[in-house]
Each structure stands twice: as structure tokens, then as C-alpha cells.
Amino acid sequence: QITLKESGPTLVKPTQTLTLTCTFSGFSLTTRGVGVGWIRQPPGKALEWLALIYWDDDKRYSPSLKSRLTVTEGTSKNQVVLTMTNMDPVDTATYYCAHRRKENGIWYPFDFWGQGALVTVSS
Amino acid sequence: IVMTQSPDSLAVSLGERATINCKSSQNILYRSNNENYLAWYQQKPGQPPKLLIYWASTRESGVPDRFSGSGSGTDFTLTINSLQAEDVAVYYCQQYYDTLPSFGQGTKLEI
Questions:
Q1: Which residues in chain A have Cβ-Cβ distances shorter than 8 Å to B103?
Q2: A81 neighbors A95 (Cβ within 8 angstroms)
Q3: Cis peptide leading into B7, omega within 30 of 0?
Q4: Closest to B48 (Cβ–Cβ): which among A52, A106, A115?
Q5: CB neighbours (10 Å) of residue B29?
Q6: Which residue of B has its CA nearest to A109?
Q7: Radius of gyration of chain A from Cα atoms?
Q8: From first to last of its 123 residues, what are the pLDDT tens digits of chain A?
Q9: Residues A87, A121: contact at Cβ < 8 Å?
């Protein structure tokens, strides 16, 4: 049973750095072919992919946000951490982490998602 | 890769068919395995997205067979037959062909 859960601050001030943690179970990021992604959704708006980290520490970022994003493994082996610098009110959104897998050399889409963490950016 | 859905919203009567379209700015058919790297998600209010269909036409386990996907290359369709009240949601397409995934803008389905 794969589960993921996002945690972090619900409120950050403009210019601050956001740090979100995705704690997961039912899989290991050390297993070949596993990835964890971050996706956000401003209130009433569409999904936006942010970043991906893979079992081999390969990392991918949204080109429009690449300079502000960092994704790493957490201190616990079942965690992934996303940091976003220089937060702005337009970054107010629900932030999701999601599982992705590769089987027989073929990638699959995000199949398991966390419930999401709403982050508000306001002074 | 830019994903564009149409329409932005639609209203369908219970028991009728709903059709949502998705167009990718590039071909997302992977020649080596002849699969289209296109997924459909359903998102109900206050919930995370739920994977419905991948490879453009393969239903995820547990998804009712009234949901079907079709299309290839750059043009794709999600069809919901015999619309049920619980199908009210926003539907998103997503390409995972590129190393940088991208979503469509969503289609809001109402009764």
C-alpha cells in the first residue's frame, strides 16, 4: 500500500524560503525505477508540475521555476524535501507529492498522490 | 510540451456521454513501444487528482469501464459513457513523454 503525505508551513511571508517534506511508505526511493514528483495547484487553477527526483538521484525541474527549486532526499530514507526560494503571493497553492515508477524500461505517470498541503504566501 | 484541453467546461445530462479533448504540441507516441505517453486524471473538490487512464487508453485498476481513452500522436479524447452524478469533477490530461511532464488546463464536468 503506497501512501504519501506532505508537511510543512501553512503560511510563509514573501521573500522567504518554503521547505516542504513528502513522507512516504509502501516503496523505497532506493529501488530502481522509482521517482517522486512535486506538483502544485493554485486555488481554482490547474495543476503545475514542479520537480522530480529519481532513485538514482537524477533530478528534473520545471524550466520556469528551476532557479528557485531544489529537491532532495530527506534525512529519513522515506522522505523527499522540496525547497522553493523567494516566495511570492502568486506561489499560494496546494502542493502535492506523487509517486512514479518505471517498469521494464517504460515510465508510468503519477499513480499515487498525497492529500496535498495548502501553502499561503502573505505578509 | 504544451497540453491544451477542450472544452474548458461542459454540462452533460445524467446517463449521457461526456467527451473531453486534449491536444499536445508535440507527438507523444513513443515509437519503440508504440505507446502514447498520455494520462487522464480526475479531481474532485478537496481531493488530490486520481489517475484514471494511462497509455492514452489503459484504465487504471478499479476505474469503471464507462471511462475510456482514445487517440494517438497529438490528439486524444476521454469519453465517459452513461454519466453518473459521482463523475462531476475536473479532468486533466498529462503527457509523460518528455522528461518534463506537463498538464492540460483542466475541463470542468458538471451535470
A1: 39, 46-49
A2: no
A3: yes
A4: A115
A5: 18
A6: B96
A7: 14
A8: 999 999 999 999 999 999 999 999 999 999 999 999 999 999 999 999 999 999 999 999 999 999 999 999 998 889 999 999 999 999 999 999 999 998 888 889 999 999 999 999 999
A9: yes
